[in-house]
Write a structure and sequence with these properties.
Length: 298
């Protein structure tokens, strides 16, 4: 069994060992990546390959949208329509793994480029919540598809998010979710990442909740992120980046008003229902950092 549990976009890797000497831990991770299926595939990948895959995913989404509009109009499908939908599903299954391999390759390249600057930390709730909705290199044990970290709201007793792995293959619920409790997780001992005051400072929560910081963060999200596409938050069905929008019942508060939304139409002519809510400070900070280079605490 190797050291790597999962790799996320950017410089972030979950590993099975308590990393003492970070350089040695990174070296072990990189060696495992090079030997892995996506590492071997990476030798054939070129810069910008993810965008090419997104282009193909968009072609499939457009074909499905047309079939969905046709179905909504005719209320029936022809045998040719069914054949085309099966073709789309088959190509998506292959494309899903291609995109995961490309994303993992990009993450590995970032880790390799920054290996002298990274640190190793325990995988606490804030650390893991920052990765919610991001495609990971973790493979579903039931079907082999890539997985993402999700959260089901905040547990009132602990005031911490309920975290779990979710398979990206569709239709669900054929593959079970996997609960992830950082305090009890036996399969993950360390998280390797770049230093970040939003995750390293012990007083970070008090800073996040300070009125002036909260106001500034809310303005940054509303002015700079709202309506933007995030290439790291991908719809598991359509395999395309999602857009950050206000929730229909938005109340204006930072952690209850925004969600990532898929913009595409499914085969039944209905808008895709996949959503990723922006509901914790670490998640907001990581989103800001992806778009602007710095999180809530600059």
């Amino acid at each position: 069994m190797g050291i790597l549990t999962s790799l996320f976009s950017g410089v972030k890797a979950l590993v099975r060992e308590v990393v003492g000497v970070v350089a040695e831990g990174v070296r072990a991770v990189l060696e495992e990546i090079d030997k892995s299926s996506f590492g071997r595939a990476a030798t054939q990948l070129v810069q910008g390959i993810t965008k090419r895959y997104f282009g193909e995913a968009e072609e499939l989404a457009e074909a499905e949208r047309e079939l969905g509009e046709k179905y909504r109009h005719d209320r029936k499908r022809t045998p040719a329509d069914d054949d085309r939908l099966r073709e789309i599903a088959a190509r998506r299954n292959a494309l899903r793994k291609d995109i995961a391999a490309a994303k993992s390759n990009e993450a590995a390249a970032e880790l390799r480029k920054n290996e002298k600057s990274v640190i190793a930390v325990p995988p606490g709730h804030d650390e893991i919540s920052a990765t919610v909705g991001i495609l990971a290199s973790k493979v579903c044990p039931e079907c082999g598809a890539p997985m993402t970290m999700r959260q089901g709201g905040v547990v009132s007793k602990t005031n911490k998010p309920n975290l779990y792995w979710q398979c990206t293959s569709l239709p669900r619920p054929f593959c079970r979710t996997i609960t992830f409790n950082p305090e009890k997780e036996k399969d993950v001992a360390s998280l390797i990442r770049m230093p970040d005051p939003n995750l390293d400072l012990s007083e970070r929560r008090a800073i996040w909740e300070r009125p002036d910081v909260l106001k500034e963060t809310s303005e940054r999200v509303f002015d700079n992120l709202l309506g933007q596409i995030d290439p790291d938050v991908i719809c598991p069905h359509h395999l395309l980046p999602m857009k950050l929008l206000e929730k229909p019942n938005a109340d204006g508060r930072l952690l209850t008003s925004y969600e990532y939304v898929c913009r595409w139409i499914d085969a039944n002519g209905k808008r895709c229902q996949h959503r990723v809510a922006l509901e914790t400070f670490p998640q907001v900070s990581e989103t800001l950092k992806r778009h602007e280079g710095v999180g809530i605490i600059r």
